[in-house]
Amino acid sequence: MASGIFAILDDIASLMDDVAVTAKIAARKTAGILGDDLAVNAEKATGFLASRELPVLWAITKGSLVNKLIIVPIALILNAFFPVAIKVILVLGGFYLAYEGVEKIIEYLFHRSKEGHEAPVTSKQEDSDPEKTKIRSAVTTDFILSVEIVIIALGTVLQENITVQILTVSIVALLATIGVYGIVALIVRMDDAGYKLIRSSNEKGFLASLGLLLVKSLPVIIRILAVVGTIALILVSGGIFVHNIDYLHHLLPETASIIKEFVIGLLAGIIAVAIITGSKKVISLFR
Question: Where are the domains of the chain?
Fold first, then answer.
């Protein structure tokens, strides 16, 4: 009896060792997309009243966890019975990310006079519609990025048994959510931490200087994240197309991959924006 228990414990320890190794490899493979995920979601989680930043971020985090709960089992099932569907989902998601990225560029270049369009989010706490819209947009984008993360993680353990696959992908998905949104929370609360340092030091000495630096750095970081997040959307979408469409994968092999992915993502976004804008105009004509 005792020997049976020890054998089970040994099997569990061996399984955990295997999962630790595969999770480490999967995390390393997904590091790039996690960086893009961080840039995109940090940009999306800003622009609210200070009192609403953490509640909004928590709402997005919960949405991200729900996304993972949906994606992980579906990815495992599709990989076992209908793997081609994963590529189709990724490509459709790529068009969505490309559309989001190009739409931001068009908005910046041609509609900057409408800079007040986000004012309800930052100045009217009682008006929750803009807030809910931004949360939905963030959760939807997170869904696409989560699909990419889960698929990449799954791709590193295809040769392992189903138990290792489930545990590895689940751990990477959970760490991705906690890690990304934990860092985002630290970023959006930088100014509050700075103010506290300034007050606690009576506006004198090193702590006061550090607090002032944090306060002044936040707007700069937010602007940088807005740019980096937009570029990340286009790069991720281009990467999805290049890695999942053979023609694009072999197109212009001498071109640096980052340039090819950006150009392809940009073109895909322009096409998506044109189709969606045209469709909206056609629908409006029949109303």
Answer: 14-110+129-286
